[in-house]
Amino acid sequence: MSSSLRRIVFALFIATTLFCATITAYAADKITIASVSWTGVTIKTEVAASILKSLGYETDIKVLSVPITYTALANDDADVFFGNWMPSMASIANKFFKSGKVVKYVANMPGAKYTLATPTFCAQAGLKDFKDIAKFGDKLDWKIYGIEAGNDGNMIIQDMIDKNMFGLGKFKLVASSEVVMLSQVQAYAQSNKWIVFLGWAPHSMNERIDMTYLTGSTDQTFGGNDGTATVWTNVRKGFVEDNPNAAKLFSNMTFSVSMMNQIMTSLHEDPKLGMKKAGLKWLKANPDTYEKWLEGVTTVAGKPGDVAFKAYLDSQF
Q1: For labelling, which of 106, 199, 222, 289 has a CA lying 20 to 30 Å from the CA of 155?
Q2: Quick one: signal sequence residues (predicted)?
């Protein structure tokens, strides 16, 4: 091989190597976040995407149902999910954890609540426990209100009905969106009409609806501690090894119930703010939180992550 031909071959080798390295780096710098259309999960997702953007990552948010979210994580079509409510999602998520295709990873919000609720005037009239629901079937029009179809909470309610647990066999599950369901609950509560619905905390519903969570949940329903829940961040298999810097950020990102309640309340008071801005506005007012989240985290270029995110926040307000 002539020296000139060797130089051409070597140049082609270098160019190919650099091209492949660029493609690999680009792939590692893109994070796909699975989300569901719940206010709290959406806020967490938007905040995480904003931080990632400030660090130099490209993000893609996919809004999916809960079952499809786990299929996406298992098939490497999504990298991370911030809305694994446990134990209520156990029937959907545990098989993916056991297979190793999805990693439970980190508890991002302990002390949450996820169970059936009712307006407080109903509780004061005797509807306090799961076993009381059937006693007031006529007043409730034999309906229990859930959120979107395929949601784990809906599945639990339907299972309770199908198995006639707590005498609920005559009831019908009414599936709807979070927004529509809560609008109906608020209207019913204001007009003293009876209703039982799927409630959770944190959420602004706890501030704007005079509501009471029912007791009586079991391990077969919303958990044995009256629906007290822990929300987890899940990642796909191999994500931590593939993206150690982003994985460090996700392991640091924890959300208190009070933090989320405050963000959601501000969003309710000013809907034009939007979920992303509501979350970022809270972080700008509470820098200690994002400084802890970004400890040990850098930009894609290797610079301090907290400095980059602070500059990003300043550009947003």
Answers
A1: 106
A2: 1-27
CATH 3.40.190.10 residue spans of the chain? 32-110+231-256+276-316
Tell how strand 172-174 and strand 30-35 pair up.
unpaired
**Homologous superfamily of the 32-110+231-256+276-316 domain (CATH):** Periplasmic binding protein-like II (3.40.190.10)
197 token code pair: 């619905």
Distance between CA atoms of residues 82 and 40, nearest Å = 9
Tokens 């259309």 locate to 37
Q: How many helices (H) and strands (E) does the chain have?
A: 14, 9
CA quadruple 85, 109, 206, 161: dihedral, nearest 10: 20
Per-residue 3-state assignment (H helix, E strand, C coil) for 25-40: HHHHCEEEEEECCCHH
pLDDT tens track for 257-278: 999 999 999 998 998 999 999 9
The 10s digit of each residue's pLDDT in 93-138 is 999 999 999 999 999 999 999 999 999 999 999 999 999 999 999 9
Q: CB neighbours of 183 closer than 8 A, spacing ≥ 6?
A: none
Residues listed for the chain: 317
Burial 132-142 (b: 16+ CB within 10 A, else e): bbbebeeebee
> What is the radius of gyration, based on Cα positions, of the chain?
23
Tell me the C-alpha distance between 80 and 247, whole Å: 9
Q: CATH 3.40.190.100 in the chain: give the residue spans.
A: 113-228
Q: How far apart are CA 61 and CA 24, in angstroms?
A: 21
Q: According to CATH, what is the number of the domain 113-228?
A: 3.40.190.100
